[in-house]
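Suppose you are handed a protein chain with no further information: no name, no annotation, nothing but its sequence. What can you learn? This example shows the usual starting point.
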Amino acid sequence: MRSHHIQFNKSILDNDFYKFTMQQAVVRLFPSAMARYSFINRGKHQFPDGFGEALQLRIRDMELLQLSIGEKQFLRENCPYLDPLYLDFLSGYRYDANEVTIKQHGADLDIKIEGHWYRSILWEVPVMALICELYYEMTNGQRISDELLISQSAAKAKQFSTLGVNVAEFGTRRRHSYEVQKLVIDTFSREGGKMFVGTSNVHLAMLHQTRPIGTHAHEWFMYHAAVYGFPQANVSALQHWVDVFRGDLGIALSDTYTTDVFLTHFDKMFSKLFDGVRQDSGNPIEFADKIIAHYNKLGIDPLSKTIIFSDGLDYEKVARITEYCRGKIGFSFGIGTNLSNDVGLNPMNIVVKMTETRQTNGRWTSVVKLSDSPEKNTGEPAMIEAAKTILSIMD
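A reasonable first move is to predict its three-dimensional structure. Written in structure tokens, the prediction is:
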């Protein structure tokens, strides 16, 4: 087992940026909220004997991570919307491995995360990254060479640059490994020119002196649905985001309860205040049509707004979206697995999602996500059906 006990984490910032922005909002607005998360093995991957034990060791290693003086300075200088109180909080934050429970039953893996939301919110992305890296190690997956990876990444950077689009790297959660993700960002930083606008990984953004990119995730809206009800979820989540960030971090995630429902709540005030929206499920062309029509109906020039496309992108899909959207609306791309895990092995299809939340001394309440791609829905079936009924969502 010791051969698999190699601490991979380089930094507490080796995580997606939206985890830290949401953490600031939770610390400020919901410090007593509790949260539970579960691992979902969408790809039905079979885990080798001893995997759960080896993963637990790496989870325990994460307790050693803490924000350095240099990292705090990077956040202070580059992310002025992260307030001093939050940065002081993050300086004192330590992972607690007791919040993560791992059980292995044969080839199946069961992972639960539970704790105060302001603490447990940081686990999702590094746990997924650890699972991926350890899986490839323990199954002896042989990736392509560094030389081929660099050459392949340089070719992709040239393609995107020729296409004339903005691309960010969003691949932390399902990367092959830290080393692969770093090599890809190294290459894109060097070869991509102005096309490469940043990465969701805060640690790697700091190393490459590029922008950390992200706003919020589905769990932000899922929590609000549990507390304020499904009809008020989008409005209360957007309003609270504005209360904390006052116009910064203005890309709204639209598909937690389907984009059609979201747009009924994304009124003229929110549509003007937010810089744009992120597309994370469904048909990207149909999504673009809906967003363009929505802005036009409100008398807002779509070219003054941006869609961030981030769902399962490769060059062909990016080129198709670009051809359709150019001249109609602003757009940019966040590309994940196709950059951070295109190494000749099958990428893992896994997620970690919030499943329940609880207020102080209250009962646990199940949370759900209703995606524009129904196969991405998460939550208890009865609660999913209740949400569909309340929101008048037809299958």
